[in-house]
Amino acid sequence: MRFYRPKFQLAALQPPQDRLVSKLGGSPWGFPQSRWSTCNDCGHPMSMVAQVEHAPPMIDIGVSGSVLHLFYCANLLCMSYGNPSSCNAVILTCQEIGTGLTEQPLNEDGERVVNDEVWISGWDTHDDIVTAEQIPSFYDEQIYTRLPEDTAHPCDVDLAWHTKAGGVPYWTGHGVTLDRAYTPCPPFELLLQFHETVYLEGEVAIEELADTSINLYQHDNFGQVSYCVNFANLGTGTGFVFIDRTANPPLVRWHWSP
Ligand SMILES: [Zn+2]
């Protein structure tokens, strides 16, 4: 299956944002304040996890100019914390997107959790060994557990491969997330998945981040040093985003799991 890996830049090292940029974390660009997602359980304004433009073939949300927004409840005391019900997806048309960054509303304690921000600066194209005929196997726990290891976990060696768009879900961490309450099945398809630890492109000027609270660290892979940032708290896990393109407009659901 073909899939695409985003390249990330740390927003803190970029010029101030002056236009729509596909990104993880941070504040959304031009998002109407009145549309901000609130947790159904605890009532806290949710934190933004992603704002991603329609950019086929990597991100195909059906309509040119539309923008996908993912939110989740970051309140650790929320009874729905970590449940799909505390994750929300909002697709807006380009006409609904305004200008300027939209600040997350404060919760009742006057606080907010804003995730660290990385911009998507490009994409790499890859193909794994999974065939189109094997796609349904990734949505059926019984069949999935009988897949050969290198098919079930095509790129399991490195966290960097847990963030990708398209193809089949690379189930991660503590096992398969095929709980029907969590995982939409076909006609839903994987749109995007992202580990809370994302890898940055190239060298990072660490000294310029001295005054920030950004959770940046170096990863040494056989002498090749790369820089990572834990952009959000997903229980050291991965967010899985699914889309049903047979619906009009397309339906998006997402959840995260350790
Ligand atoms: Zn909540």
Low-confidence sequence ranges: none
Helix run count: 2
* Ligand list: zinc ion
> What fraction of the residues are assigned to beta strands by DSSP?
25-35%
Helix share bin? under 10%
Structural account:
The protein is mainly β. It has one domain. Helices cover 3% and strands 31% of the residues. It is built from two helices and 13 strands, in the order E-E-E-E-E-E-H-H-E-E-E-E-E-E-E. A six-stranded antiparallel beta sheet has the order 1-6-2-3-4-5, with no helix packed on it. The longest helix is centred in the middle third of the chain and has 4 residues. The model has no long low-confidence stretch (mean pLDDT 91). The site of zinc ion has 9 residues, from loops.
What structural keywords apply?
258 residues, mainly beta, six-stranded antiparallel beta sheet, four-stranded antiparallel beta sheet, binds zinc ion
Give the topology, please:
Layout: E1 2-10, E2 23-24, E3 47-53, E4 67-72, E5 87-92, E6 118-127, H1 141-144, H2 149-152, E7 164-165, E8 188-195, E9 197-199, E10 216-221, E11 224-230, E12 238-244, E13 251-257
Antiparallel strand pairs: 1-6, 2-3, 2-6, 3-4, 4-5, 7-8, 8-12, 9-11, 10-11, 12-13
The protein binds zinc ion.
The site of zinc ion has 9 residues, from loops.
Quick summary:
Helix content is 3%, strand content 31%. The protein has 258 residues and is mostly beta strands.
